[in-house]
Amino acid sequence: MTKHKTKHKPKAKPLARHRNAAPAVAAPAPRPYRPRPRAAAKSAEPEDTNLRRLLYTAGGAAGTALVGTFLAREGWAPKTIAGLLTAAGGVAAWTSEDPTIKNVGAGAMSAAGSQLALLMFDGRDDKDAPAKPRQADMNELPPGALDAAFERARSQLSVAADDARRYSDAA
Fold first, then answer.
1. Do residues 82 and 68 touch, judged by C-beta distance below 8 A?
2. Could you give the CA distance from residue 167 to residue 14 in angstroms, rounded to a whole number?
3. In angstroms, what CA-CA distances link 21 with 15, 16, 17, 24?
4. How do residues 110-147 score in pLDDT, each as one tens digit?
5. Could you give the CA distance from residue 146 to residue 9 in angstroms, rounded to a whole number?
6. If DSSP codes are grouped into helix, strand and coil, which group holds residue 170?
7. If phi over 0 gives left and psi between -120 and 50 gives alpha, with beta otherwise, what is residue 144?
8. Could you report the per-residue pLDDT of 94-103, keeping only the tens digit for each?
9. What's the whole-model pTM score?
10. Fewest Cβ atoms closer than 10 Å to its Cβ: which of 23, 56, 61, 98?
11. How far is CA 153 from the centre of its chain?
């Protein structure tokens, strides 16, 4: 009988260990089963999203504009208004723990700070600017001014008419 050669694969050699290789570590022991807590019902506090933060920041800027307009109508100097509102917004944004107040303060500081920068770069002082006439003053004329204006216009028209007659008679 002839022996049949079987084609068998040689056994894989174990991987050679390196000199500095760490010894094999046993697998960690399985953890005991703990049930997961159920998802809590939605909290009463709304979720803080990018859009919500953006809206609060825009609200802070709009509120600053309204307060600045009110103070300007009350006669406050524009640089003083912008400086105070910038400082108030910065303090609110920096010191508050509430993210809503932080965003409103950031918007206020941003809006007022940009106004302050524009006023600083303008280069003009409000004290040096000439006083602008009020609209009510521009609509009123001093007594007799209208009569004097009509007389000047009448005399200029009569001079122009005399000149026109002279030139037409000479031609």
1. yes
2. 128
3. 12, 10, 7, 9
4. 999 999 999 888 766 555 556 666 655 666 777 788 78
5. 122
6. helix
7. left
8. 999 999 999 9
9. 0.47
10. 23
11. 55
